[in-house]
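Recall that a protein's primary structure is simply its ordered list of amino acids. Everything else, from secondary elements to tertiary packing, is in principle encoded there. The following example makes that idea concrete.
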Amino acid sequence: QVQLVESGGGSVQAGGSLRLSCAASGRSISTSFMAWFRQCPGKEREFVAAIGWTGLYTNYLDSVKGRFTISRDNAKGTVYLQMNNLKNEDTAVYLCAAMMGILSDVRRAGDYDYWGQGTRVTVSS
C-alpha cells in the first residue's frame, strides 16, 4: 500500500510560481513511475507530468512544457512539481499518482494504482 499526500497549492497571480509536493508513505516508490494530473469540475482528469524510476525520464503535457518541472527524491519519498509562469487555465485540483507495476501509457490515469486527495491551485488575473 502507498499513501500519497499533496501540499503546496494555493492562490497566485498569473505569472507567479508554486511548488507542489507529494509525500509518499508505506511501500517504497523508488521503482515506481510517478505523475501529476489535474482536474477541474465537470472535466476529465488531465495528465500534466510524469517521471520514471530514477528521474532521468520525464514526460509533460505540451501546454506546460517549459513552465513546469517534475522531480523526485526517492530517499525522502517525495515528488515535486515546480510550476512557473502560471496561467489562468492552470487552475485545477492537482493530484499525485503512483504506478507500481507495468504501464502502457504514462499519460493514462487508469494505469496508476495510487492517488492522493489533491491540492488546489487557483490562478487569478
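The CA atoms of residues 47 and 107 lie 6 Å apart. The longest strand covers residues 18-26.
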